[in-house]
# Entry
Amino acid sequence: MAARMSGMPGGNLTRATLDTLGRAIVTGEYDERPFPTEAEIGKAHGISRSVTREAVKMLTAKGLVSARPRQGTVVRPAAAWNLFDPDVLHWLLDRKFSVDLLRQFNQLRVAIEPEAAALAAVAADDADQARIADGLARMAAAERGEDDPLDADIDFHVAILLAAKNPFYAQFREMVATALNTSIRFTNTIVGRSASVEQHAAVAEAIAARDPIAARAAMRALIGDVLDLIDARGVA
# Structure
């Protein structure tokens, strides 16, 4: 790894170091041993002190580590990690699969996306409506084997978050896109097919009709079905 990483451009090298260290923290590699010093990280991966320092700063910003006087850099408890950070969420979802985590993510979705759909029914402009319609069309094409079902589903949900015209909802798009990669794969495996185009169409039609109540209800029903599938799976 050291040889590969040392040959990368500076930005890519920092990113690779961040990914290696972040993944190691989240998967528990430092649960029983101290986090390495900057000098130890640099030696282990064949990278400069400046690259190491920048990667550790990024881990600190994500809530994974903190610097303590006379103790150096230490791993923070999982409760302190920034779960809204796409990298942290990606590392969490890449470790041993947890139905609990999947359930918790969809519980968050059901608190956010129905309201985003209701806002979109009021605020979406023509470009937003076109993006939502395109996402739905891609989902239909995916059912015919003409598009990627995962990408199409994610594009549909992200289009609605953006159509809400609320910067706070828009901030969820990376988190939703990251977590949906796992959520959709899991639920699609259970039902043996891609997500219901009909259910997604009901959301899109309510938004196009400027009906926030129907849009909210349709999105709540869609995510509610996902939660039912997860609960039916059983063990957390």
About this structure: The mean pLDDT is 88. The chain has twelve helices and two strands. The beta strands are 65-68, 72-75.
